[in-house]
Records
---
Amino acid sequence: MKSLSLLRHAKTERDSETGRDFDRRLTERGQVNAERVGAEVGELELSFDLVLCSPAARAAETAEFAGLSPRYDQRIYDASAGELLAIVQEVDDQIGRLMMIGHNPGFEQFASMLLGTPIDMPTGALIEIELPVDQWREVGDAEGRIVRFLTPKELT
């Protein structure tokens, strides 16, 4: 059994100072929400063997404010559901609990694919999906089960 948690970056500014999407930063509300999600992760005593994160500013800041120590993977930025699946399928099988921090629409589409049902992930949402596989390369469509789904709104 494997566990995959997807954390969508928290609320961001509309435009970055540079004009690049990659450089968009968290708003004050986004910072508070990321801290709340991180506090809840701590309260629930959730631990992860590996945290993979998009290197985009808003994802990196979400990890920072949530108190997570990620390994950055450029492929997560702007990834499709299929590309996210490929990243997960490459994970070492010694890893039992994986978290990824990234972006929509890819994260919503990926979660929906794994669960076999549409799911909406607002900014700052965390979904934990249990996968009935022993090896990450076995992960496929409609196999997952939601263990928990947290949104910043319900943590206020």
---
Amino acid sequence: MRLPVQSKSVYEPKDETDEWRVLTTQYWPRGISRDAVDEYVRILAPTRPLLHAFKRNDLSWAEYRDRYLKEMQGELQQAEIHRLAKLARSQKVTLLCVCKYEDVCHRSLLRDLIAQFDA
């Protein structure tokens, strides 16, 4: 069973498809109020060194993806993924990040990890 998890930019306005909004960034986004999200889970964001390397174009998307997925194998990360997967069984979870395009953002990878989690 695939869990109801979606993702979008934190700069997109909240709408009726959002139920539980989870921000997963290393830095709080400029211009976003604290009440725009339901929770902030920094541990599910890429580490700062990984994020900076990708933004400097030192890594391809494939390299970034592989390193991010490896980071998400940590005990604390797996616990959070499991918790959000349990939450997604009762309500839709919307993952948020500052990136404009989902196809080159960790939130698409995280969405799939949560949606496929066998809890």
---
Amino acid sequence: MKPKYLYAALFVSASSWMASASVATPEAAQPDLEKTYADAARRIRETALRERGAWDKLEILCDDIGHRFSGSPQLEQAAAWAAKTLRADGHENVRLERVMVPKWVRGRESLEMVAPRSATMSLLGLGGSIGTPAEGITASVLVVKGKKELLAAGDKARGRIVLFNNAMPPYDPEKGSGYGTAVRFRHKGAALAAAQGAVACLVRSVTARSLRSPHTGAMSYDNVVSRIPAAAVTIEDAEMIARLAARGHNVRLTLKMQARDEGLVPSSNVLGELRGSSLPEEFVVIGGHLDSWDVGQGAHDDGAGCVMAMEALTVLRKLNLRPRRTIRVVLWVNEENGLAGGKQYAKEHAEEKHVAAIESDSGGFHPRGYSLECKDKARQDAAVRQLEAMTALLAPLGATRVVAGHSGADVSPLKDSGAVLMGLDVEGSKYFDYHHTHADTLDKVDPQELQECVAAMATVAYIIADMPEPLGR
């Protein structure tokens, strides 16, 4: 789920995307692109929907390798597999580019309610958290909904475990998930609680639906306050604690976490290309992030984004659709807890001409269209109009939606280069049911919807790479 700072893009609500959506396409622009690329779009769509190449790749990534957390052997195994697979599919300039990534180790963890009764609770430590002493931390709980209630409590937080019981709203087809309204306490809750004297921080899992599933994710500390352990609990347990506290019970918990930071270790972004026919030094990037959290298989987040980009390039190569510009697949590392891969790619390739960069990091669900942004607002407006013409060719997939103002985390470091940054927009009603949990596994991915995403990505990437003028010009 992510520009310039890891979570800034996550905090942009879908309603703000809609508010900045473009005006209707000038009639002169739309028919030209549709007419020129109609046959190519049809061939790409038919080929992508007839095959299961993305699913076959995802099956290996999920079942044979598993989770791919930064600093883990599985992430390095996944990078080697991806490079080998790109070469086997015939792509050019396949390589690994070194990136230093943080290695945070979860260790064993547990949460027990010791009063007013004994009960074991589910939890997941938040990425980047410190651990507890070996004997754990036992303390009473202060339940708050947000920062305002925490500050109003004054000294009541001192010596306690603060629980942020902040609910994520239900998914809305137009406004989206409301993720940004809930994730802020996962990210900054420990710093807020520590500033008030708390000894540990718990957050209600960032999801609107739960079957007692805790959701992990990254957090960060404010350097001016002490560091306290932080973990996520399930919706069900957060609500129970809140009910008990509201009825006057002194809820006491014992939290044990072995979490630790082991510094920076080497990893790699993975790159492969379909070289352009006449403008090979101009690039259209497509990709997703290869890393995942250390729970589940990272199937939707973001194995699906990786394999759809890999397969999109393969479909174009099979059809001998070689555009003017180079299409480059980039599989970034460390999106989840640092964005090191996206930052390193932008630094190493700063002198190259990036026309556009497309990221998929919302799961492998049915595609709806694209979001986009550009530092040059006039170019952004022109790109929106051109993209509307392109997505008209995706009408058989139902992927015609175009929204301005957002792209994705890994492509965000390229914004200052002037490139048009884009995000594949997919149907999102189920994504946060699985996000950052043990349940993000291959069985949650629909093979047909995944191939629809391949068709949507391959079509738009090909047109952008083949247009006589750069996107937005």
